[in-house]
Design brief:
This protein is mostly helical. The protein has four helices and no strands.
C-alpha cells in the first residue's frame, strides 16, 4: 500500500538531494510543456521548416527535436509529480 505522507528531512544529504530532484523534475515538466506548445505553433502539418529556422536546427532535424520534447512530456505526464510533492513534508 502506498504511503499517504512521506516525512522528508531535507537537512540530510539524501533528503536534500531527493527534494532537489523532485523540484527539478517539476520545473523541467513545466518548461517542456511550454516548449512543446511553442514548437507546435511553428509546425505546419508535416512542415518543420519554421521550427528548424527558429531553433537553428539543420533541415530534417525539426521532427526529431519535436519528437524528443513530445516524448519527454508524455513520459512526465505518466508521473504524478504534484501528487509526489503533496506527499512530501
Amino acid at each position: 500500500m502506498a504511503a499517504d505522507y512521506l516525512k522528508l528531512n531535507t537537512t540530510t544529504q539524501h533528503g536534500g538531494e531527493f527534494w532537489a530532484a523532485v523540484t527539478q523534475l517539476r520545473n523541467a515538466e513545466s518548461q517542456l510543456v511550454a516548449l512543446k506548445a511553442r514548437f507546435e505553433e511553428m509546425i505546419d502539418g508535416s512542415d518543420y521548416t519554421m521550427l528548424e529556422a527558429n531553433t537553428d536546427l539543420s533541415a530534417g532535424q525539426g521532427v526529431q527535436a519535436y519528437n524528443l520534447v513530445a516524448g519527454a512530456v508524455a513520459g512526465l505526464a505518466a508521473v504524478d509529480i504534484q501528487q509526489l510533492i503533496a506527499r512530501l513534508a
